[in-house]
Amino acid sequence: MFSILHIHPMVVHFPIALILVAFLVEFINLTRKDKSEFFNEASYYLMLLGSIAGIVTILTGFFFTQEMIGEAGILREQHEDMAILSTIFITIATVIRIVLRVQDKESSNMRWIYLVFFFISVLGIMYTGLLGGNLVYNYLIGI
To answer: What secondary structure letter does DSSP report for 64?
Structure first.
């Protein structure tokens, strides 16, 4: 039987995959001697889609998850806080990248600004996923 509580787990994997793959593609392009327009474009659009998916996922977490108490409630709060921070960082990185792209400065040294935010968001996303996984597997949330 489908429940609205299933919406968050259904969408949560999209921003994780999109943002992590975007970062991997960006890293590959940075380490190549000859910069590839394909890798640059792929990273940009994956990052953009991942940012949008992250915002949608945050909203589904707010509106379509159950209340939790005790240790599970504390873990949920940590998960939620990290998700918000990660989404803020990837959104900042994406906005900076869009601005640099519009100004045709994407390949300048200014690129390192969004890359720092991008990297922090990737670390945050991995930790957020760890906390979410703990909620599911250690407290059987949603089962």
So the answer is: S
Q: Which of 46, 69, 44, 59 is nearest to 12 (CA)?
A: 59
DSSP 8-class letter at 5: G
| Annotated domain spans of the chain | 4-139
Residue keyed to tokens 């975007």: 22
State pLDDT tens for residues 120-131: 999 999 999 999
Residue partners of 64: CB distance under 8 A and separation at least 6: 4, 5, 7, 8
Q: Identify whether the C-beta of residue 19 lies closer than 8 Å to the C-beta of residue 44.
A: no
pTM of the model: 0.90
Asked whether 122 and 51 are in contact (CB, 8 A), the reply is no
* Alpha carbon 97 to its chain's center: 15
Whole-number Cα distances in Å, 71 to 32, 58, 62, 83, 109: 46, 21, 19, 18, 45
Torsion of CA 103, 108, 113, 117, to 10 degrees: 80
Look up tokens 């890359």; give the residue. Answer: 115
